[in-house]
Amino acid sequence: SDTITILGLESSCDDTAAAVVRAGDKTEILASVVAGQTDLHAEFGGVVPEIAARAHVEKLDLCVEEALAQSGMTLSDLDAIAVTAGPGLIGGVLAGVMMAKGLSAATGLPLIGVNHLAGHALTPRLTDGAAYPYLMLLVSGGHCQFLIVKGPEDFTRLGGTIDDAPGEAFDKTARLLALPQPGGPAVETEAAMGDPKRFRLPRPLLDRPGCDMSFSGLKTALLRERDKIVTVKGGITVQDRADLCAGFQAAVADVLAEKSRRALAEYMALSPAEPLLAVAGGVAANIAIRAALETVCGEAGAEFLAPPLALCTDNAAMIAWAGIERYRAGHTDDLTLAARPRWPL
Ligand code: KG4
Ligand code: ZN
Asked: What residues does substrate bind to (predicted)?
């Protein structure tokens, strides 16, 4: 039959994940297991590659067992094993690739190496059956780019960050203001109580054409404002902090909105039948940013799509799905599959 069932593995950053996805007349996520590592890295203020790799090695087999159990599948029900082969922290990527190779060697199932970014970029097809082409804005802790997605292996990058990713900027802002990690949700909560107009933070690169972005300067500007208050008052109040967060979030939202407007214009020139801007990545959880993007889409005459958060952030269902698309295109790998720390789309 045409039904394809694939086991996907993901271990390129700080989430160990395994999922089973079946695609036929309809597409079903039969299981999607994600084991995070936030606690392990908390005291270091960032992901420690060596600790991440060891945790992946410890958890991958358990995640696979659990995903198979939840899906009611055994290895013999599968058509292939898909695995993130990059880009990412190489120790973690290697752990996943070795696990997938072991399973492939033991079962004879084809192995499919998936680009992690392609996994994010193809998620709107998994969740909503989006038709090619569509515009994707990937905004996470590690990535920030616009892609026109034209096929499972056909992406046009329109621009992206030239320094920090927005999630990273949220995390650093939280650290500067003594808020907990991950910074995004904490800063968003504060921002809801603040005045976004009190501190006028810069909107980097808006004066330059194109879709490139920059977020590292925002953090410096924020630090300067904070230190000014500290010099005058000896510390910052709860309201100061909320206003700083609101100003920061408004600046990020403005930059993402204006650059999305430009990316949409380039993409709309392709005359897509049902124009769509989809987002992926943890920052897509931010309500103010979502609202700004939705407005831009409305003005441009495009649909806006934000998949469920669990499928916006790192997961293995997106890897299994990207594997299904590659499998259908007849592209499988063998045991020579390499793990790649860098792998632009
Ligand atoms: O996609 P993700 O889970 O992991 C990767 O970066 O791969 O994204 C995590 C990032 C973190 O930097 C986190 O602070 C940010 O997404 N984030 C948010 C929000 N929730 C998570 N940023 C802004 N607003 C939020 N509500
Ligand atoms: Zn990711």
From this structure: 138-142, 171, 184, 188, 286
Per-residue pLDDT of the chain (345 residues), as tens digits, is 589 999 999 999 989 999 999 999 999 999 999 999 888 887 777 788 999 999 999 999 999 999 999 999 999 999 999 999 999 999 999 999 999 999 999 999 999 999 999 999 999 999 999 999 999 999 999 999 999 999 999 999 999 999 999 999 999 999 999 999 889 999 999 999 999 999 999 999 999 999 999 999 999 999 999 999 999 999 999 999 999 999 999 999 999 999 999 999 999 999 999 999 999 999 999 999 999 999 999 999 999 999 999 999 999 999 999 999 999 999 999 999 999 999 998
Instruction: Provide the residue range defining the domain that includes 212.
Output: 141-310
CA distances to 5, 27, 101, 189 from 279, rounded to whole Å, are 26, 20, 31, 21
Note whether 245 and 147 are same-domain residues.
yes
Same domain, 91 and 216: no
Q: How many residues does the chain have?
A: 345
Is residue 335 included in any domain, yes or no? no
d(CA 49, CA 248): 29
Q: Is any ligand 1 atom within 6 A of the Cβ of residue 281?
A: yes
The ligand whose atoms approach the alpha carbon of 140 most closely is: 1
Give the total number of structural domains in the chain.
2
Question: Is any ligand 1 atom within 6 A of the Cβ of residue 279?
Answer: no
Specify the CATH number for the domain of residue 287: 3.30.420.40
Nearest CA to ligand 1 atom 14: 184
Cβ–Cβ under 8 Å, residues 201 and 222: yes
